[in-house]
Here is the input.
Amino acid sequence: NLTITPKSGYELEKLVVKDADGKEVAVAGNKFMMPASKVNITASFRVIPEAYALTVDSAIVNGTVTAKNGSSVVTSAKSGDTITLTIAPAAGYELKELTVKDAINAEIAVSGTGNTRTFTMPASDVKIAATFEAKATLYKVTYTGGDFVNIRAAADASSADLGDIPNNTVLEALSGSTDAWIRVKYNGIEGWVGTGNLTKITT
Here is the structure.
């Protein structure tokens, strides 16, 4: 049973036990089985790498970002560690932008897609920020009275007809939409389509 005591600021890097013939003896933790010969024990120590702060912006809204090193949630890490970011948008929201910057505000390369991203911890403190936005609400044109639906100048069936939108066209609802009329943009034209001619395909 070996007692290993590194100097302050150091940690064990390697421990080797060899028998009289120079063959390595298996070591488990700090224990080994004594062979039928004298042994030679050598150890090397290294400077404990400095840990740098990992700060997730407290102003993030409509979602969260969690930093993990392995399976542990962390607020600091050593240079070279692989940090995994778990992104959890609130209901109805999605990630718009994620930034990871070092102490001099330089961006750090982040890999991955979706709600899991990774980066390599630099020899610097790191700040993580994210912006979440509401998911787009999409509609499909499903007009039963013909192959096209009119796009109107206002939320009124008697307003000017600005053009036709073919059935099965997918449209994004713009701000200002109501329960009865959806404001849309189609082929560069902004106007209104009655919800009775549309089927909602996302929430």
